[in-house]
Amino acid sequence: MENRFSRILSKTETLISGIFLIAACVLVFTSVVLRVFWDYSSSIMEEAVRYLIVWCIFIGASLALKNDKHITIDILLKRLPEKIRIGFQTLAFLLGLGLCLFIFFKGVNLVWHSYLISEKSTSAWRMPMFIPKLAVPVGAILISFRFLEKIYLNIRWLRKERT
Q1: Distance of CA 153 to the CA centre of its chain
Q2: Residue-wise pLDDT tens digits, 39-93
């Protein structure tokens, strides 16, 4: 059962990652056409593609977790009774949540440091680097929410089984 916030978040993540992916594809196509026909290469376009892909990866990781699309090694878990399997899953989700929160706080420090020193990209674009680096804490918090959602659903299932 999915709540309203989760549905809105999923649609927003899908929309944003889709727009970023399409933009990256258009930029790559444009870059190739410019290189082949006019022997022109733009470091700005290449840099923009990298940043868009990084954002797509972090947002997509959240969607993949929500839809159980991450790679898992579950050969042993599949053979366990359902209650024990759910317990192990919950433990794994708690560990993942802890890791994501660690990455979130480190990412915030990374972004803040980049902002304080006015770090800019080395290309002609001179983009403030805190903007692409924001993908780290934003992605970590999105994934953390998905872990919390999974933990909540597992605990609810375990409680329902107990009664």
Answers
A1: 21
A2: 888 888 999 999 999 999 999 999 999 988 887 777 888 888 888 889 899 999 9
As a whole number of angstroms, the distance between CA 120 and CA 102 comes to 25
Tally of domains within the chain: 1
Cβ count within 10 A of residue 156: 11
Per the prediction, the chain carries an average pLDDT of: 91
Report residue 48 as tokens.
């923009």
Range of 23's domain? 4-162
Cα-Cα end-to-end distance for the chain: 19
According to the model, what pLDDT value does residue 163 have?
A: 66
| Residue 36: both structure tokens together | 């082949």
CA proximity to 127, closest of 57, 54, 45: 45
pTM for this entry = 0.88
Q: Is residue 124 classed as helix, strand or coil in its secondary structure? A: coil
Inter-axis angle of helices 82-116 and 135-162, nearest 10? 160
